[in-house]
Amino acid sequence: MTNETNPLDPEGMLRDPNEHTPLEDIYAIITGCTLLAVGLVLMQAANIVTAGVAGIALLMSYVLPLGVGPLFFLISLPFLAFGGQVLGREYVIKTVVASGLIFGIAAVAQQAIHIADVHPAFAALAGGTCAGMGILALVRHNCGAGGITTLALYLHRTRGWSVGRFQLLVDTFIVGSALLAIPPERIGWSALSILAINMILIAWHKPGRYLGR
């Protein structure tokens, strides 16, 4: 079998149109981190727990004297080591940058946005949707949004598992653990927030659906 060449590019010098440029990666990472950080701040204002490492950070922020940003960054570190082994150096570099941005943007947002009162239903839906779209933007540009996403992407690439469905399963355990830190009536809103996040990934993160990389 002979290798076919593009008659318009016989030497293979043209860039793959499905490959993201560095500028596109930068813009997507900044946008994704901003959406994710704003979603976290909105949900924290309503005292609800959400998805993945972000949800663990939110849960711990209710019982520890640390903000959600620093906790998110610290919890993500061991998962980054795993990501470096199985997903490559580029993924780790992007994810480290993203984790730092989420930490910084969340810290700034907590000072810049003063929420006196927010209905938990709105916080769950709007905050969850913002966070879900942020995660989607990151994973489409080979970047993680925390430890659970790293593990989910590894299972997606090696075994074909759905990122959204796997995260939804993990988040169920996180919300169950939240009973130790938040009132039971908040659990329903927390479940709504993780559903808002992961339905975006279930609907729009599918093999072959998006060709950019």
From TrEMBL:
Keywords: Cell membrane, Membrane, Transmembrane, Transmembrane helix
Keyword Phosphoprotein on entry: no
Pfam families to which the protein is assigned, alphabetical: YitT_membrane
Bilayer topology term: Multi-pass membrane protein
GO cellular component: plasma membrane
Chief location category: membrane
Annotated TM spans: 71-88, 95-115, 121-139, 160-181, 187-204
Localisation per UniProt entry: Cell membrane
Domain of life: Bacteria
Protein name as catalogued: YitT family protein
